[in-house]
Write a structure and sequence with these properties.
The chain is mainly α. It has one domain. It contains 14 helices and no strands. About 45% of the residues are buried.
Length: about 290
């Protein structure tokens, strides 16, 4: 594994965190609108690349099973996002993120071990556990509150949705990882873009009146900027899946809270709580262990 390319998941997590920081800073409320915007921006950017590189013929040249595999993979990704949005509407983001990340890492590791027959050395395993432990530490107050309060249907729905989302995103990473052996990163990202558009535009059309009333021109401007960073993030993510394993990509990408909290501290003037600082340190240690595991 090329030492520089092995860092791709971290770059993907960083650009994704930038997008999240923009959405948070300007208090974007229409959660379903963002994926639709992002798919439109991605389509324009990727189409421009295909025209400039004169490679549309390659996009339409794959065998049917390649398109089928990518359709299944990125449908799981889109459905996971729909479930994720529903989950964070009912349960704290920290709880949803922790459960989703943990399940995603666990499932992709099992799939890689027993289907792709990969062997994980002790440093990689300890590092992965370290990153998950760091995520738990960062979100510990939310997890603790869930234990102490009376359970309700919203909490139960949020937990089940988080489990499903983690499973869907693990399936997405696993299938895309295998399929990218026979396809280009640009084409894979284009198929993901088209499927995201297919799933989210109808949802937004259904909510058109509400979106029209609550969305400002300023919000649209920052939605576009944030969408550009997600486009870059997804190109890097697919690039990592092509050159690294699904487990490696997923585990290192799970360190996104490091960048999100750091950017929030620098640009949003958010204070780091003691558990968040501890979690960042544990995540960083996990990342270093995984890098040294090469």
């Amino acid at each position: 594994m090329n030492s520089i390319l092995s860092f791709l998941p971290l770059f993907s997590a960083f650009t994704w965190a930038i997008s999240g920081t923009i959405l948070k800073k300007f208090k974007i409320k229409n959660l379903y609108l963002f994926p639709a915007f992002e798919s439109c921006i991605s389509f324009i950017a990727l189409s421009s690349m295909n025209f400039y590189l004169n490679r549309w013929n390659e996009f339409f040249s794959y065998e049917t099973q390649i398109y089928t595999a990518f359709t299944i993979s990125y449908s799981l990704s889109a459905l996971g996002m729909i479930i994720y949005i529903q989950a964070i509407k009912r349960t704290e983001l920290g709880i949803v993120f922790t459960i989703t990340t943990s399940i995603q890492v666990l499932i992709i590791a099992l799939l890689d071990k027993y289907i792709n027959l990969l062997q994980f050395n002790s440093l990689f395993t300890i590092g992965a556990v370290g990153i998950i432990s760091g995520v738990v530490a960062i979100n510990f107050p939310h997890l603790k509150s869930l234990k102490n309060r009376q359970q309700n249907k919203n909490d139960l729905f949020g937990i089940i949705a988080s489990l499903l989302c983690g499973a869907f995103w693990a399936g997405n990473a696993f299938i895309a990882d295998r399929t990218l052996n026979s396809a280009s990163v640009i084409d894979a990202t284009m198929i993901r873009t088209l499927l995201t558009f297919t799933y989210f535009v109808p949802i937004n059309l259904f909510q058109y009146n509400e979106i029209k009333l609550t969305t400002t021109k300023k919000e649209i401007k920052y939605l576009i900027i944030a969408a550009l960073f997600v486009t870059i993030s997804m190109l890097i993510w697919n690039g990592s899946l092509k050159v690294n394993t699904g487990s490696w990509t997923t585990v290192l990408s799970s360190s996104a809270p490091i960048f999100a909290l750091t950017l929030g501290y620098i640009f949003l003037k958010e204070k780091l709580k003691s558990n968040e600082f501890t979690g960042i340190c544990i995540c960083l240690l996990g990342v270093l262990l995984i890098i040294f595991s090469e």
